[in-house]
Amino acid sequence: MAAARITRCPSCTATAPACPCGSSRPPGANISQGRNLAIAAAPEGIIAATDAGVRLPPDWLEHLTAPLLADDQCQAVAGFFLPDPDPQRPFEIAMSAAVLPTLREIDPARFLPSSRSVAFRKAAWAQAGGYPEWLDYCEDLIFDLRLQNSVGAFAFAPQAVVYFKPRTRLRAFFKQYYRYARGDGKADLWRKRHVVRYVTYCVLLPLGVALGLVFPPAWVGLVGAGLVYLRQPLRRLPGLWGGLSAPGKLQALLWLPIIRAVGDVAKMLGYPVGWVWRWRHRPPDWRRPLVDSPAFGHNER
Known about the structure:
By secondary structure, this protein is α+β, with helices and mostly antiparallel strands. The chain has ten helices and six strands, in the order βαββαβαβααβααααα. It starts with a strand and ends in a 20-residue tail after the last helix.
C-alpha cells in the first residue's frame, strides 16, 4: 500500500528509484491506518493513491490528476487497473481473465475504484472520515462509498491505468478471496450476492447433480449453466492469451472453472467469519452520515 502527495514525478514507474513519491506505513498498521497516516502527513492538496506491487506507467499521475486540476468542483477521480500476468504462464492468464474486468465492462457512472488507482482532494478525504481503520480488507470500497456520499460522484479517468499482477498460486488466491469475503462480512456488504452463492452451491448444484444421475440428459443443462457462469472470463481470455501455445491455451481454459470454484469456496468460508466478527465487535455503521470529519476516522473507534 502507498498513499502520497506527489510534487513532481518525471518517471513514475515501479522500477524508477529516482521517483520522489512519498509513502508512510508504520509497523503493525493495517491498510487503512497506513493510508490515513500517509495522507495526514501530506500537505493540503491532491492525494494520489496506489498499492505496492503495481506497475505505474509514466503518464499515470498526469491522467489521474487531470480532472482535479481542470475543475475545482471535482473532488475525486477513479483510475483503472488492468492485469499484468506473465504471458507465458497459463495459470496467470486464466487468473487475470477470471477476476479482473476489462474497460468495456465498466459503467463509469457506477464504477467504484480500487485504491490501486484513485485521486482525491485531501479535504474530501477528511470529509469522508478517512479510510475505515476498523476494517482490514474491503476498506477502499467503504471509503469510496463514503466519499461518494460526502462529495459526489467520481470522475472517471480510464487512461489512468495501473497494471496489477494477479496471484500466481491457487493457495494465495484462496487466501486473498477468503480475506475479501471476510471483509464483506465485517462491513455487511453484498448480502444478496453471498446468499445467491450459498443457494447455488449448497442447493441448486447438488440437485442438478442428483438429477443428472437419474436423468442423464440433465447434464447438458448443468454444463450449459456452467458455461453461462464462466461467460465473462471466457470473453476476456482471447485478449490475454496471445503469447500462449495451443497446449497453453487449453491449460488456461481448464484453469478457469477451477479458479472460479476455489474463489467461491473461499468466499463462502470467509463471509460467515466476517459476520461473526461483526456480531462480536459491533463496528460502526458506515452507512450513517458522519457526525464530524476527523482526519483519522476516530469516530469509528
